[in-house]
Amino acid sequence: MKKEFKQYLDELQAPETLVNRVDEIIGFYSELWNFDPKTIFVTDSINEDGARIHDSLFLINDAGIAEAKNFLYLDDFDFVPIDKILSWNIASKNYNFIDANAKSRVTLRLLLLSSITFDMKSAQNNCDYLMKFHRDYVIPRTIN
What is residue 32's predicted lDDT score, i.e. its pLDDT? Predict the structure, then answer.
């Protein structure tokens, strides 16, 4: 696993089982067709008990986005090549787009030219990572 991926997961306080599963899924995509992610993103939310719940793992590179849905419990993998993004929507709660706090929540919805949509949600400090993904990956690929 790349150092920056491990650092990201550490900052999310990801348990060892999650880190190991992410590494396993990266290996699957790599062996399948030499997919080398430049960045990763783990969608998360906070349940009623205050525990962080992880839903999907996104692996991103210049060719497209791979998603492992409900990745801690299932093998449900896909890949979508991405050249251009038709539109995006950001919905936020308790987030100032600078510094996340314990109550921050952000959802990013992407609509691709192929009519495929992605919903990426984040909580707490993961909101900052989602906004970085938006700046670095989404904005440059959005159709003007």
Answer: 86
